[in-house]
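User: Hey, quick favor. My workstation is busy. Could you predict this chain's structure for me?
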Amino acid sequence: MTFWGDFSMKVLLHTCCGPCGIGFLDGWRCDGYEMPDLLWHNPNIHPYMEYKHRKNAVMDFAKQYGLDVVMDDHYGLNDFVGATFDQQAQQAQQAQRCKICYEMRMNITAARAAKLNYTHFSTTLLASPWQKFDMICEAGEAAAKSHGVVFVVKDYRDGYRAAKQKATRQMGLYMQKYCGCIFSEYERYNS
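Assistant: No problem, here it is.
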């Protein structure tokens, strides 16, 4: 893991939703960094209306923060399900689906960062206490190595509750009820 103190980096920030985005960016700003550009690429978010609500929330908070968004507006149902579900090995795939999901998103973010001449990238997933922090870091580091950019690790999970309240109460943004994938939605409503 790399914790960066370089304040001159050009960063592309993978953004999953409004509350995580706000949590990450508020911490980022408090640390004195120049604000990054955002990337919307989330083929894991389903069903379609959930995808649309989260994308709109990201666009809304980006506008309020004055940030640019690199938009990859491909609803990736087939890509995500194809990568995370194999009927022959359903149990093994379910245990690995978060890892596969993180790898998909970090690889796309690192590739896009390299293509667009960003020096660094990160993800707002690191601001959520519900995500697998170490697994995200592993996926980010591997993607960085593959694409010749640097993955920035910042732990802003302690600001998540305040960001959630700010997103919903002050900014009126959509607040999701599960991580985004169809499997987690099923688990949420089936428990």
